[in-house]
Design brief:
With about 375 residues, the protein is an alpha/beta fold. It has helices at about 10-25, 40-55, 60-65, 110-115, 150-165, 180-190, 215-230, 235-240, 245-250, 255-260, 275-285, 290-300, 330-335, 350-355, 355-370, and strands spanning about 5, 70-75, 80-85, 95-100, 130-135, 170-175, 195-200, 315-320, 340-345. The protein has a single domain (about 5-15, about 50-370), classed as Rossmann fold (3-Layer(aba) Sandwich). The protein has 15 helices and nine strands. Helix 8 crosses helix 12, helix 9 packs antiparallel against helix 12 and helix 10 packs across helix 11 (about 275-285). The radius of gyration is 20 Å and the shape is globular.
Length: about 375
Amino acid sequence: MDIKPFQVSIPQSDLDDLQSRLARTRWPNYLPDVGWTYGVPDHYVRRLVDYWRTGYDWRKWEAKLNAYPQFVTELEGQKIHFIHVRSPEPDALPVILTHGWPGSIFEFIKVIEPLTNPRAHGGQADQAFHLVIPSLPGFGFSGPTSEPGWHPERIAKVWAQLMHGLGYERYGAVGNDWGSIISPLIGRFNPAQVVGTHVTQIFLEPSSPDDLPDPTAEELEALAGLDWFKKNMNAYDLLQSQQPQTLAYALSDSPMGLLAWFCLIYREGEGIDDDFVLTNASLYWLTETIASSTRIYFEARHMEKPSSDPIETPIGLAMFRDDGRAFRRLADRLYTRITQWTLYDTGGHYAAYQVPELWLADVRKFFHQLR
């Protein structure tokens, strides 16, 4: 691969334009005292926009990224941006970490140093990892995409090309959100190279009552949570898998609109700080990748039906409180080697950022048995 060093340097004119647009926000009317009943409440978006204008500092977060080695390359005609941090420990295990939507590589910003240099953070040398953290195709500095077809299976195969190009022939895969779908596929396609996969979700659900006969109390609770999610929070999935371009016209023209759409996921009161929300919103806005990022939903919905053959690569699940619950019986049918299954009563969808110590301990425990 032709790999080139990369540094984030957003032109000041782009930041000034963002500020100008925020200052000229035209607010929709709203119903008072209805909470989240009709969607993201007005007071939440207004507070975030006010902070975006008067207190938030993109340059601080830009510097956080630039503190780590970053690179760009081209794979299958697509620019791919990635962080690549090698551990000072010679026997460190290489791992590729994959984010989701509307997240980014910032999901992992708090765990880079303890993963790569554990002895400096209360750990041991045999817990060290070399890290590759790519931006998904069409997301942030890996975007936009210029052709259709960037679905999870294709991304998984490209991630394997990336790891091979970096000289890693034995490695692990870690994922959140879309990364929890893509990472096990890397193992499916490259079982001799991938020692194990650690994820924070297993997106399997029953298609009929016959899939879960005589459900347990825990399964009934998970089914109720899934039903609530589909009725109250699934708008982004439905729209982006059907009409991503139609949505993109609005989100590409209004930073307030983009932020409000993200806040369907970044829900108030779920332990996500304002800087994390605004850093991700800023990244999508400043790189003009909201349109290409939403296309992954369309591509996943319209790709050929994926294989249902069992995946034999070892897998570990760390599922945190605000992500609901997974169905172990369904998971056992697809994954033949579930070696770790932990359900936490704290944390949320961005666990590596929200509860980094818990997430880190789970990752270390999972890969300890596979090194």
